[in-house]
Design goal:
Helix content is 51%, strand content 19%. It is an alpha+beta fold. It has a single domain, classed as Orthogonal Bundle (Arc Repressor Mutant, subunit A). The two termini are 19 Å apart.
């Protein structure tokens, strides 16, 4: 049964990232840091891994004169995350 679990979401940080992204359109780097309580470097490495898998999309822009990086879940990312959650639910016995 565990073969249906997605290794990309084994990390609690990646699990948290995807949980935030599937319920929000775009989330910026500062919001992630605040919500997940992780360092810039830790967050950046996990987001890069999810971006490489094409599970997240990155948008870099300027708001006024300040750079802003934000992220959203891709359709394949959302599908993979929901499938992972479904696999977890199948592991939990029903009362």
């Amino acid at each position: 049964m565990i073969e249906d679990l997605n290794k990309a979401f084994e990390s609690r940080v990646r699990l948290g990232i995807m949980a935030v992204l599937v319920v929000n359109e775009w989330v910026d780097h500062a919001q992630f840091k605040e919500l997940l309580g992780v360092t810039d470097g830790n967050l950046a490495s996990h987001l890069a891994a999810l971006e490489e898998l094409k599970y997240v999309q990155v948008r870099k822009r300027f708001i006024g004169k300040r750079p802003n990086t934000s992220y959203r879940s891709t359709i394949p990312g959302t599908k993979a995350f929901r499938a992972h959650l479904d696999a977890i639910e199948r592991l939990i016995p029903k009362p």
